[in-house]
Fold each of these.
Amino acid sequence: MTQGRSPAIAGWLGGSSEGARRDFAKDKGIARVFALALLLACAALFFPVASANGNSMASEARYEGVATCAGSTCHGRAEGNGAVVRQDEISTWQSPSSQSGAHSRAYAVLAGRRGQQIADSLGLGPATQAADCLGCHATFAPKSQRGPRFSLSDGVGCESCHGPAENWLASHYARPATHASNVADGLIPLDNPQVRANNCLDCHYGSKNRGQFVTHAMMAAGHPRVSFELDLFGALQQHHDEDDDYRSRKGRMNSVRFWAVGQAEAVRRSTSLFTDTEYGMEGAFPQFYFYDCHSCHRQIQDSDQRRLSFEANPARPIPFGNPPFNDENIIMLSAVAKALVPAQADNFLAASRDFHKAMGTGSGDEARAAAASLSSRAGALSNALSQRAYAGADAFKVIDMISGRATNARFTDYSGSVQAVMAIDTLLNALVREGRITVAAAASIRSNINKAYQAVEEPNAYKPSDFRVALASASSAIGRLR
């Protein structure tokens, strides 16, 4: 993400149906300030299928390419008027300007001026041929697994998210087929929030697969800062309607579950990567990708009157002047745990404090051990959040916890504040989808949400105290709609 733009979203994912939600995101450009990140950092999600669904048979399956899905009787119609699925999924994926088409544009971005400038700075040669880029800007399948209609230039294609199609392409639409049988044939079960989160995180945070880790050097060369929120990203890239047929096959999707599990898996992914010295270190220095960018990238002034450009964070026991680990997802997960899994909340909070303390005063081995412990706690929360039953008031509970005194005081940094306002808006949308709040009622408090967005619109103008006031105001406005 460029330093001059906020990764916050400026619109509301409103609507009473999945179609309305997707169309609003597509037509209104809801994530206008996510545009560059989605263009430059869109995921190839080359996630080994065996890891995603336990089917080792599919791990060596062939990738057949987008063209195999594009028939007019399959997913290539001009209009979404199919009896079972929309059938215009390719058209949505190829949208030339909206966020729903960002994955299809990912490869083309590499050939652009900025993409090649980044590759030149890193000595990678042509960006469109660099494995360090293709891992997330295309469906980067091994050459031995590429079918005759496969093309890297398709960008992040269907099989990046749904898995190599060789074993399920010819059968997944047949009447005897079920979702379970398709998964058994290698289709990635994206209805499972943990599977979906890890599939997305491979590129929207990083993985150990080739070309799926954004280093600090890449960001220094011009790559945008990476930020992730599962329910939001899922809405922007959603090419289906959650109608009765969909629910009969895959069940009802719950936005609070997907958002919460996404936060937990983001913490588990970031801390688990940090424990590996190949990723957590860069020579004698830590890999700065894991740190909060704005803790170092501040204006430097030399004057008689000291003017601090940061606030101490009550949940980060680190020495004065030390750069903090980027804890935007840790803050959110702490709030989720208190609201929805209180039995695990104190242990997670203690593990996060121990991690920050070890980062500031411990050795490298101590910091990695603390990261491993925190990763384990995040995993336990992910399991609990994925398996629990969700009630209609859950979104209200989490919103209250995010804006409450204990959590609100932790919004001292730009990245965490951006994640918070995205969460408030995502959870508001969940309340609309569940029928707990009407579209009109949500629209009536749009100005309160927008004030919170305005507080993180410009990183260099960010003021923690102003943001906390704006967030509390937005939360109070939502609370009045109970």
Note: Residues 364-387 form the longest helix (24 residues).
Amino acid sequence: MNEPVIGRVCTSRAGHDKGRAFLIVGVCDDNHVLLSDGETRKLSRPKKKKLTHLHIEPLKSDEIAKKFAECKEILDADVRKALQLFGYNNG
């Protein structure tokens, strides 16, 4: 399994959001991450999910990770755009 780092793309393997693509926007502990897709899960209220319920993709949005590292403002539109660039269409 790929390492859960901020900006990495993942898809849900369990729950009502199964099959949906998200970006990791936070790491809580060894077993949980915070997810956002910019649509149903906004950055203002990310989803906390267990790593065992996720498939972490090898894709990473360097732009989002860089903005988080520099503490710059990130918009939900930035998250949606990053997912669309990788070919994920949640809508």
Note: The two ends are 27 Å apart (CA to CA).
